[in-house]
Each structure stands twice: as structure tokens, then as C-alpha cells.
């Protein structure tokens, strides 16, 4: 009778059908058909020759056909064995595919990755490519993308408020970076500056222009690079009011309080009234990258996004 979704009663099956071969036996059958030698096949399968022989005999009994002719000094497939070999290979291949798929699913990560971005990094193509590849590989990982200010984007990593950050090096000690792109830097000038309408200028022409500064908690190694301090020839940089984020910086530039240097993408992403972007012929380029704390490099989520970044960078 049927009760609770189970079948009971006399004659009900109580176990596997003894006529159905196991996937292991089919794998042994395929290996022996390729070697046509019990000793070599057993060595390849890491089992004893007697165990292999017994399994093949049991397989033949289950199938009701003889698979191999053992009458001479060599082992050959019987006509029945030849016919069944293709099906056996199909089953073994399907089992291997199933095992690989199950293993892949078991390795897939889950959890929440907190991603920090500075300026326009969230909109950059490499950022989208890295996060897209991460989601493709690990669909159960959730990403929380947060916009950071100049003043706290490194501190956010050290405080563990974020796991990784898309940012612009250089970085202070304790942080590792996977480089993703290289880009020119431009001078960001007040529109009233006589140099603002020129197609290109040099660093020497900017020697007397004051530069907008950043809060003291920002690592100086970072802002010195972006302020080009010191200038060629050791010329000191004069600093003016402090900005803690990009909008504040652009506002001060538009007000004529000073200038700054920004990635070339800013010209398209941050056009502002009162601001002009000008090419500087002797200004070294900048890099963009994904950063994480060196001490956290082996954490599974960080390893996963770092590997995605390496793949995007190599492509």
C-alpha cells in the first residue's frame, strides 16, 4: 500500500537492482578495453589484478553478456563488448561531468563582500569587469559597493569597514594592489587661469600654482604623488585649502583657490562650471587597481575577487 509517500508490502524492492552495473564497474570496463591487458589496467586503476578480474566477471553476470575473450594469450573485446563500450564510455563521461559540476558547486563561495570605490572608480570598465567576473564565478557572493572620500579610503581598509577598494595608487605600507589600468593625468585648473585654454602645458609652467590639499589623515605618500610633490628640480609645492572629497576639490578649483591633478577620465566624468582640464606633456601617468590588506590576502572572498582582478588585468 501507499502511505506517506513510501511503498510497502510483499515483493516491494528493498535495495538496488542487482542487474544494474555500478559506475565503478563501467569505469573498470572502459579502462580494460583500452589496455586489453589485466595487469596494465589494474596498475592504471590502482587495484589488484584479481580485484579487477572479479569486478569484470560480476559486470558480465549483471549484463548477461561476455565482454572480453580471455581464451588466448591476449585479451580482446567480444562483439557484444564492442557494442556496449560506447554506452559505457557515455556513462563514465556523464559521471565525471556530474562529479566535476558537484565539486564546482561545493567550492562556490557565499557571503558579503564590501567594496570601496574612490571618485569615479565605480563607473570604470575594469571595475565592472572584475565584479561581473566575480559574480559569474561565485553567484552566491553579494557585493556591497560603497563610495569613499579621500580622507578615509585607506582608513576604511585598515578599520575593516571594507574588504577591498578600487582606488588609485600609491598606497601606504600594509596594502597590496593588483594593477588594472594605466591612465594619463591632467591638470585641473580654474577656468580663469591663463593656462586653462591651452591645449597642453608643462609642469614648469605650473610651478607657481597652489595645489588643493587633503586632510592630515590621508597618507602623504598618496597625495604627494597626486600633487607632484616635489616637482622636477626640487621646487616646493604651495598648498591651499583642504578638500576631503572630489566634489569639494572641484569646487575649490572652480573658485580659483588652487589646482590639482586628476586622472584623464575626470574630464568626461566630472565636467564642472569654472573648471578646465589640460594635458601636461611631462606628467607621468597614474595607475588604477584593486587593493586589500596584506594580512587579509588569504581570506576566501578576497582571494576570489583578487583572482578575478588578475584575470581582467591579464585580458
From TrEMBL:
* Domain HTH lysR-type, chain residue ranges per copy: 21-78
Instruction: Cite the entry's keywords alphabetically.
Output: DNA-binding, Transcription, Transcription regulation
Can you tell which superkingdom this protein's organism belongs to? Answer: Bacteria
- State the similarity comment: Belongs to the LysR transcriptional regulatory family.
Q: Which PANTHER family match?
A: HCA OPERON TRANSCRIPTIONAL ACTIVATOR HCAR, TRANSCRIPTIONAL DUAL REGULATOR HCAR-RELATED
Spell out the protein name for this chain.
Answer: LysR family transcriptional regulator
